[in-house]
Amino acid sequence: MEGVGGTPPEMLKEESQPSHVLPTSFEANSLKKSNWGFLITGIVGGTLVAVYAVATPFVTPALRKVCLPFVPATTKQIENVVKMLRCRRGSLVDIGSGDGRIVIAAAKEGFTAVGYELNPWLVWYSRYRAWQEGVHGSAKFYISDLWKVTFSQYSNVVVFGVPQMMLQLEKKLELELEDDARVIACRFPFPHWTPDHVTGEGIDTVWAYDARTFRGGAKRTRSTHFQLVIQIQ
Ligand SMILES: C[S@@+](CC[C@H](N)C(=O)[O-])C[C@H]1O[C@@H](n2cnc3c(N)ncnc32)[C@H](O)[C@@H]1O
């Protein structure tokens, strides 16, 4: 009795269809594929951004006029630095402090130690290491360009530099440091100063210079230091 007195079958067919049209298996597959596409693009893109963010501060020193890369001090080198600091006290700065190992070793020896470092990742890591080693109270780290920092307040200065920067740094420290300061150079000596002490050998060699010696007896007080700074500026 189909079609008699009731709804025509073709109408019935149409009405029984759901309001949302389900995708065919082909469409569902391509939808899944495009979701995967987005996910993979996101992961690859995110990874590239992360690698770029981490690697850039390590690579940029190579692009500067003076290339001072991150090369951490050896254990022997640190021992030699500590040896040169025996009988010394007070404040200490590591110029280009890397992962903070010199600053942390100095803090453990009782110094109020500070590190200036251009690479923010290394500074954050150094702070974490100082906290882990229990010396975060006396080991501080700052993200700074060494050429923009004045070192006059430090009586002990450590630097593991490169030969190309030592002459410029020699002039800067000569101008800024007090007479009772000691400068310790790791691996590369200063070009004109005569060291008061040398210890270690090969890449672990460490030179210690006392400000009175490299000034040749010319006494500098805090006020003459500021006069000189003002004259230069
Ligand atoms: C040879 S590493 C020495 C690291 C650390 N002092 C040690 O002995 O283990 C030199 C460090 O200086 C940093 N550096 C390079 N240029 C700098 C700048 N203009 N100011 C501050 N730090 C800089 C580098 O990122 C690197 O960590």
Task: Tell me what the structure shows.
The chain contains eight helices and seven strands. With 233 residues, the chain is of the alpha/beta class. The protein has two domains: 39 residues; 158 residues, Rossmann fold (3-Layer(aba) Sandwich), CATH 3.40.50.150. Strands 3-2-1-4-5-7-6 form a seven-stranded mixed beta sheet. The N and C termini lie far apart (108 Å). Bound molecules: S-adenosylmethionine. S-adenosylmethionine (SAM) binds next to helix 4 and strand 2.
Descriptive tags:
233 residues, alpha/beta, Rossmann fold, 2 domains, 7-stranded mixed beta sheet, 8 helices, 44% helix, disordered N terminus, disordered C terminus, binds S-adenosylmethionine
Task: Compile the SSE list and pairings.
Elements: H1 9-16, H2 25-59, H3 75-84, E1 91-95, H4 101-108, E2 112-117, H5 120-132, E3 139-143, E4 156-159, H6 163-176, E5 182-186, E6 197-199, E7 206-210, H7 211-214, H8 222-232
Parallel strand pairs: 1-2, 1-4, 2-3, 4-5
Antiparallel strand pairs: 5-7, 6-7
Bound molecules: S-adenosylmethionine.
Residues 61, 68, 70-73, 94, 96-98, 101-102, 116-119, 122, 145-147, 160, 186 line the site of S-adenosylmethionine.
